[in-house]
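Lab notebook, design round three. We kept the backbone fixed and only want residue identities now. Task for the bench partner: fill in a sequence for the structure below.
Input structure tokens:
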């Protein structure tokens, strides 16, 4: 599965302002935000079809998304620059 255009665009834009310790974190963040936008839903299970699968089962995807949503290190203040 190729990387969706929106995922690539988000990653390029965010990488100008955010410099994580590990570049994979920014990639996962971009992928999850792109899935949220493309699904037009806050329901985590609807994001799954927009994620790269990485040989995971649906439950693994939901656990990854749940961790992303509930991660205290990810705050709007970190990613939002007025």
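Proposed sequence:
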């Amino acid at each position: 599965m190729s990387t969706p255009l929106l995922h690539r665009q988000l990653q390029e834009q965010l990488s100008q302002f955010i410099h994580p310790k590990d570049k994979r974190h920014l990639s996962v963040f971009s992928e999850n935000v792109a899935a949220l936008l493309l699904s037009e839903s806050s329901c985590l299970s609807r994001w799954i079809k927009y994620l790269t699968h990485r040989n995971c089962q649906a439950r693994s995807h939901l656990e990854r998304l749940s961790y992303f949503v509930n991660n205290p290190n990810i705050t709007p203040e970190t990613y939002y620059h007025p």
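Keep this in mind before ordering anything: The mean pLDDT is 80.
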